[in-house]
Design brief:
alpha+beta, single chain
């Protein structure tokens, strides 16, 4: 099923409207009880996550009536939605606030993400920063670009390959099981520097804009990765799961490396994961 530039613009408008109406008014203004734990102290949900997603869901139902809607908070209520992604003619996968902990703590480091998947293939991706009101966008067949609040656009391009000792990276090592966790943490010292922003939206923005060389993520929920992997790929990058198989939005276990090219991916896999 095709998804056009006009469709992408329509979805962009929906995300921005929800951010303006439900997310940003609650930033640093959450009421008592507006922040709740899901699985632990580092896995939070806020009123802004839920109300933002319900607005996006309702607007998508009008704009894309035949699409399957899969949101992080919707899946928390109905995990069966994940099993429908691969067979859907069109699925819209949404993270209303990626970086919820940052949002809840009052840190302006979060984003709104959406991926469009057709029969298991990601065909469009959006990453929106509602603080700066700018975008990274990707559309299969048209490439990846950044777009400012004033409408200025520029093509995205990943970093040039380099020696591991000169590479900067991003890693969610804390989500890895042992003994992989300890091994990877020790190996990250081989790089020039490695960071974690607890926000996949910003981390994919950084690698897709060539500001950081690689990311090493663990825990593959589609709302965290489908949009970013596509945008990074269209910006010239290479991504694959830790076992070397291609990523798609139907795969929810294990880890993923995104790098400037396949050779860099193999180097990072060998030296940091083993």
């Amino acid at each position: 099923m095709s998804f056009s530039r006009a469709d992408l613009d329509r979805l962009s408008t929906i995300l921005a409207e929800a951010a303006d109406a439900e997310i940003m008014p609650r930033f640093r203004s959450l009421e008592d009880g507006g922040i709740r734990e899901k699985t632990g102290a580092l896995d939070l949900v806020t009123d802004a996550d839920e109300q933002g997603e319900w607005m996006i869901r309702d607007l998508c139902a009008k704009a894309f009536p035949n699409a399957l809607f899969v949101g992080e908070e919707s899946v928390a209520r109905d995990k069966g939605l994940l099993d429908k992604i691969g067979s859907a003619d069109l699925a819209i996968i949404v993270d209303p606030i990626d970086g919820t902990s940052n949002f809840a703590w009052g840190m302006p480091l979060f984003g709104v993400m959406a991926a469009v998947v057709s029969r298991g293939e990601t065909v469009a991706g959006l990453i929106y920063d509602p603080v700066g009101q700018d975008w990274q966008k990707g559309l299969k067949g048209e490439g990846a670009w950044g777009e400012s609040m004033h409408g200025y656009t520029r093509p995205l391009s990943v970093a040039r390959p380099d020696r591991l000792s000169e590479m900067t990276g991003l890693s969610s090592w804390y989500l890895m099981p042992e003994p992989q966790r300890s091994k990877t943490v020790a190996s990250l010292a081989k790089t020039k520097a490695c960071f974690n922003y607890r926000c996949a939206a910003y981390e994919y923005r950084l690698i897709s804009d060539g500001l950081v060389h690689f990311s090493l993520h663990y825990k593959l929920m589609p709302w965290d990765h489908a949009a970013g992997v596509l945008i990074h790929s269209l910006a010239g990058g290479y991504s694959a799961l830790l076992d070397g198989t291609p990523y798609d939005a139907t795969k929810h276990e294990g880890g993923i490396i995104s790098a400037p090219d396949r050779e860099s991916w193999e180097l990072i896999r060998r030296e940091l994961v083993g």
